[in-house]
Design brief:
248 residues; elongated; alpha/beta; single chain; 6-stranded mixed β-sheet; two-stranded antiparallel ribbon
Length: 248
């Protein structure tokens, strides 16, 4: 209701007004003529959150983040390639400045094979211009890489089920550690890790280990050992019979 769609270049010619929330799944790792972002008409967008917020021409991921932040009064939700979290060079410089401004609230690692055009895992990044006091200086990392079900219609794809979405949303809302799934991390710790936001650096899914009943395992081992002794004894007997037959 009451929406408008514009065709054009949103990075160099944004045609939307400021609003409370901005959400998008922009092109990942987009090649682009970065000089277009330095045009005086839009340069302010890419110098507000980072002094020199012009990424390399190979990837516009952090340009999209800045564009969305510029027009959002409250929050941004963006779907990006996982590599945006840890690539170096100019992207790292922009990432560092946005982190130091305490604008990132959550990073969610998604499962593989959610998208038609890539099997790579994506991420959801939530940025908040007005963090509540309890969340300042912190980011929650949510590792949802195992939260998926097989797509019912497309064999090669996975999808997020309702229970997976609810689990992710609840973790974001509660903003507390959940073993193997979510971890609240201070900006100081992220700085120590050289501003790397790779989710698996901070939270890794718990690997369920098979429970072993030692008594049962010992009983089974003894059975196997008895069978092996019997087999060896029979083999020796046959060899002896062959030798005896050869000696006659």
């Amino acid at each position: 209701k009451n929406y408008e769609i514009f065709i054009g270049d949103s990075l160099a010619n944004p045609r939307f007004p400021a609003c409370d929330y901005v959400i998008a799944n922009p092109p990942w790792n987009q090649d682009y003529n970065v000089n277009a972002l330095k045009d005086p008409k839009v340069k302010k967008i890419y110098t507000t959150f980072a002094n020199d917020g012009f990424p390399s021409k190979q990837s516009m991921d952090w340009a999209w983040i800045q564009l969305m932040l510029y027009f959002a009064n409250k929050k941004v939700g963006i779907v990006l390639d996982n590599g945006a979290l840890f690539r170096g060079g100019r992207e790292k410089k922009i990432r560092q400045e946005i982190l130091e401004k305490d604008l990132i609230e959550a990073v969610v690692l998604l499962p593989e094979k959610l998208f038609y055009n890539t099997g790579a895992p994506g991420i959801v990044m939530v940025l908040n211009k007005n963090k509540p006091e309890a969340r300042k200086g912190k980011i929650i990392f949510i590792n949802a890489s195992n939260e998926y079900e097989k797509h019912p219609n497309v064999r090669r794809l996975n999808r997020l089920g309702e229970e997976h979405i609810r689990k992710i949303v609840n973790a974001y809302g509660e903003f507390k550690d959940i073993e193997g799934f979510a971890k609240v991390v201070s900006l100081e710790e992220i700085k120590e890790k050289d501003y790397n936001l790779n989710v698996s650096l901070y939270v890794f899914p718990v690997i369920e280990e098979e429970k072993i009943d030692l008594a049962e395992e010992l009983k089974e081992f003894k059975k196997i050992e008895a069978r092996e002794k019997k087999a060896v004894a029979e083999a020796v007997k046959y060899v002896e019979m062959i030798l005896e037959a050869g000696g006659e």
